[in-house]
Fold each of these.
Amino acid sequence: MRFTDFRLRARAFFRPRNVERELDDELGFHIECETRKLLAEGLSAAEARRALARFGPVPLAADQCRDERGISFFETLARDVSFALRTLRRAPLVALTVIATIALGLGVVTVAFTFFNAFFFQVDAVRNPDELFAVERLERPDSRSEVPFSRSEYEAIRRDTDVFTDVAAARPSFPTRVRGTGAPGEDIAGRAAVAMFVSGNFFEDRRHARRPANHGVHASRDDSRHYGSSVDCVGGRLVAGSDAKSYTPYLYANKLFSDRFRDAVGRTWPAYLDGTRTLTDADRDLVRMLSESPR
Amino acid sequence: MPRQTIPDLLPGTLDLLILRTLQTDPMHGWAISERIQQISHDVLQINQGSLYPALHRLEHQGWIEAEWRVSALGRRAKYYRLTASGRRQLAVEAGEWERMSTAIDRVMRFA
């Protein structure tokens, strides 16, 4: 907003009588000039009035000028408030009864909505939770032991798969520090992150970490309240095809892990993900670093 | 000669005509409408329902500024004059108009 615009609006709001008087004077001057001109051209007073009517009603022009000030909302509000205060002063008992009735009604509606929202309207915070998966390779089809993917395998999955819209790497037993949505180009794997997911807004409730297969995703508002907004990932679980590959959900809320632990993982696990250290060595490095670092 | 009001002519043209009319001297609203009517040989006639909202809009945009003076009739009148930013805006709008009218003219001649 320009300063001139602001100044004119402020003047119209704080000195409305002056501005209105000036508008009346301006339009009145126009009418006077036009009337003089028509009379000078030889028209009678009645003809001059008819001719002037062709130019439109003056109140309409005044209204259009007021609209150009851009403060009609505030003017209306000020008038309404003023009217309400006058009414309150004139009949306080009636006014207070009306206010109390409206307040009570709003309270009842709020309670009713809260109830219906909690029991009927609540929806999952995740848009498509059934489309989020963590990929897990099992030792045997009937086993629950996981065999981690190597960095090169992860990259091959990421490069070749057309099943997921995006893929990110992580290690289930280590903290994840993932930001963003896993969009291409985001450096997620370099943070020794875990699991595979397509969004960073979901999580699994760790209270239910030992659930059976084919369980659903926990992404309700209740879970959001439990973990706050700083959650990282989650997935679903399914058994795909005859080779019984398993897709298991994982979730890592940052607040579950201390900065000290995250720091240790960040220092030790990139070596494993790079392939320069074995899984066992990386685990050993991590344990040693944790034991040496101050609590 | 048939008379044509500005809003029926081309949207946005009124602002350009007002700015151009104020380029030389400050004028009050009625004088502006008279000036446009005279120069256009009565083809363009601006009613006050179009003129004054446009003047107030231009004033809010900072392209013109107003001052109250005593007119030749001995009555107070609101005189408008072009500001520096109004002159720049006039140059822009005049250039646009020139380009558009030239293009339309070419189509009318050669299409």
Amino acid sequence: MSEPQMRTPMRRVRGLGAAHSGTAHFWHQRVTSVAGIPLSLALVVIIIGLLGRSHAAVVQILGSPLVAIIMLLFIINSAYHMWIGMQEIILDYVHEEKSKLLSLMANTFFVFVVGFVSAYAILKLSFGV
Amino acid sequence: MAELDAGSAAGPRRPRPLSPHLQIYKPMLTMMMSIVHRITGAALYFGMMLIAWWLIAAASGPNAYAYVEWFMSSLIGRLILFGYTWALLHHMFGGIRHLIWDTGHGLEPVEREMLTLATLVGSVSLTLILWVAGYLAMGGPR
């Protein structure tokens, strides 16, 4: 830290840490992990249930409200959970400042692209032509 | 750092002690499962591309979906899917274990070993049960 050491340890601890955001992510990771339990179980059942079905059947099932909502919740919840998780891995292993910032940026891009592609597909199957 | 380097003033500079890393420790179940938790998390991270590919192909039309279906029906595709579902369930059970530990419970030596073993047994058996049930519901492999 380049700032002059006029601050108390308490002030430096508040809202800092490697990610500069304190313990907020710790708690969000717990919230998304609890939500992920039923959603993951549902996803595994949906995946296995759709194996080997025709395209028409898959479109109908994935576009039906209950399955589509579960899929959307799984995608949104997982996107946030995996964004925090990968950030934690990067902060653990990548210490050089430039690589760290680039990795964190790549993490955000990856999560947004994968999340939006999946969410768009579900919405198109639900509403689209 | 001045106090740490004080010893080197007397003689030639000694290499500083390094903290022991993974290969120094005897492998233990809790340690291995901690590593596996991180590995399955990272695998699931990239595995989400498979989900995205599968969904966007279904939304694109029969031709795009036929390619996904061909890949997922192949032996390697089925193995990847099986591995993905196991990784997801193992990460889920590992996460439940961590949630229990977060409450301050299950940290005694015997309890934590049992919990850790339970995540492994639980993930493998639930994955097998769901796949067998899935195949039975589908009327055999297709």
